[in-house]
Amino acid sequence: MMHNLALRNLRARSLRTAILIALTALLSLTICGGTLLVSGLQRGLGSLEARLGADIMVVPYEARTKSNLETIVLQGNPGYFYMDRSRYEKIAGTEGIAQISAQFYLASASSGCCSIPVQIIGFDPETDFTVTPWMKRSYEGTLQNGDIVVGNDLNAFPGDTLQFYGVECHVAAKLEKTGTYYDSAVFTNEETIVSLIQSSLDKGMNDFADTDPAKAVSAVLINVADGYSPEEVMNDINIHVKKVKAVQTKEMIAGIAGSLQGTSDVIGLLIAAVWVLGLVILLLTFSMQMNERRREFAVMRVVGMSRRSLAWLVMQEALLSGACGAVIGTAAALIGMLSFRSAIGAQIGLPFLLPGTAGTAGLALGAVMAVMLSGAAAAACTAYRISQIDTARILRGDNG
Amino acid sequence: MKKITVTDILLLLLSLALCIGIKVIFHACGPKEDGGFMACHWAEQAVFAASIGMAGVSCIRLLLSRREKAGAALAVAVMAAVTAFLPGVFIRLCMMQEMRCHAVMRPAVLLLCIAVAAAGVTDFVLSRKDDRHDA
User: Fold this and answer.
1) N or C: which terminal CB in chain A sees fewer CB atoms within 10 Å?
2) Which residue of B has its CA nearest to A181?
């Protein structure tokens, strides 16, 4: 009966109800959307940290000047550099190295389907310790010659055949989503990448200058042995191996983590500002509504409604409009964030990985509950004041 | 004079938004370096053609009787439902999910088509309700 009355009240004052719903929808849209964004950025960084998996990365010295190494490593912007394998052997001789593996980067030519080159990463399955552990989650087998493993953002599936530089490659597995540039990369073993290089050279599509592509590597990844610090080993390599630059991966992550923290703080501040503003507006709206409906509430008291029931009626109206707005706002945020997640990630230019289904559902539920509780808290003040009204004075027309 | 309802205007505006948006705001990937087009370009063209049809029918609807309008609204809803599947299902898109056709065009077309279909079905249901009420 009371529930029905609250609904009828809301319907009767459709404009006021629409404004309340719009306000709560805006609140939940901001909270849900903002939290998803911050969470996506944090998960993206965590995923990148997990994927890098090496203490030190050694690249040819010119890579440091050719383009920003952080951009290459963190965003995968094609910047291709090569050094002779002899330098890899020299680096391997450095004291304090526990694991060492070489990688080879190659950009595919624009294939028939798309104008963006795909980054092909060649690794040695016998020594690799960064790609293989992650690959094992999706693919248990051993990569044969001509086999490739594709990132999650590539529209290719196990069993498909992709062509790079005229060489047909068989898709052996598709990796799980990481939110980093690895999602649009292709991984393969050394033999396959050598055949791709040869084909690219035959077609005149690549130039390795004075480096022999069969004996070239792009980067060397190192894990430091116990008892040694990454800084120590990095300095040792930088001093004793010529024409290479060793960098600590944590340093590269530190830069991005700093900018990520700044972005998260700004988003957090915006959410808080919108929240406070929304709460103030809700309080004002309920307060104005009470003044406007004083006579209505007084009549309800006269016909026998208790103070408690009257307060509960106001609470019910607030909860119903709040629930409606919260669901609409949260749904809008979910639709927007989930549909345009790739565009948002590309626009931000940082690793971006939205939470899984359970995490997203939890966040959405939290946003709905938070907004409903805010509405209820704002309405509670009004409900208390309504329960204290002096019926006789209001009906006499004495508002003082 | 024919009565113009909110759903009439909504249907027309959403169809026009799809028609203009697919060419101006959420278009597919640009041409390749050699000047050729990728597959997604043809998906954009198909959506553009279908949206012209939807906008045309939504416009003509305004001149029809209530019953005819309801039928036309349902037709627009069906057209929107089919158009939603043009990029990615009937016509393939580019290879990478991060490319514009996947990241922007496909979700925008999908959301707008859902909105057009919802407006069309709502208009049809409301017209049927009015018919029953009049009877």
Assistant:
1) C
2) B98
Closest CA to A371 of A317, A324, A316, A311: A324
Domain residue spans of chain B = 39-130
A340 vs B97: CB contact, 8 Å cut-off? no
What is the C-alpha separation between A33 and A29, in angstroms, rounded?
6
CA contacts within 13 A on the Cβ side of B112: 28
Interface pTM, i.e. ipTM: 0.78
Element (H, E) at A9: helix A2-12
Answer whether B6 touches A (CB < 8 Å). no
H, E, C per residue of A63-120: HHHHCCHHHHHHHCCCCCCCEEHHHHHHHHCCCCEEEEEEEEEEECCCCCCCCCCCEE
The per-residue pLDDT for range A240-290, each reduced to its tens digit, is: 988 888 888 777 767 667 777 787 788 888 888 887 887 888 888 877 877
> Three-class SS of residue A210?
coil
B107 touches chain A (CB under 8 A): yes
Q: Is the dihedral of CA B106, B111, B112, B116 positive or negative?
A: positive
Q: Which one, of A225, A245, A243, lies nearest residue A235 by Cα? A: A245
Tokens 């060793």, located at residue? A246
Question: Tokens at residue B21, please?
Answer: 């948006």
- Which residues in chain B have Cβ-Cβ distances shorter than 8 Å to A153? 96-98
Q: CB A113 to CB B33 under 8 A?
A: no
Contact A110 B32 (CB under 8 A): yes
Rounded-to-integer distance, Cα B23 and Cα B28, Å: 8
Secondary structure class of A7 (helix, strand, coil): helix
Q: Which residues of B touch A113 (CB under 8 A)?
A: 38-39, 94-95
pLDDT digits 0-9 by tens, A146-202: 899 888 888 888 888 888 888 888 998 888 887 777 788 888 988 888 888 888 878
Tokens for A8?
């009828």
Closest CA–CA distance from residue B72 to any residue of chain A (Å):
28
Return the residue in B93, B96, B100 with the most chain A beta carbons within 10 A, the one to mutate for interface testing.
Answer: B96
Exposed/middle/buried for residue B53 (C-beta within 10 Å: 0-12, 13-18, 19+)? middle
- Phi-psi category of residue A164: left, alpha or beta, with phi > 0 → left and psi -120 to 50 → alpha: beta
Q: Is the pTM of this model over 0.90?
A: no
Q: What chain A residue is nearest to B97 in terms of C-alpha separation? A: A153
Distance CA A136, CA B14 (A): 47
Whether A155 and B38 lie within 8 Å, measured CB to CB = no
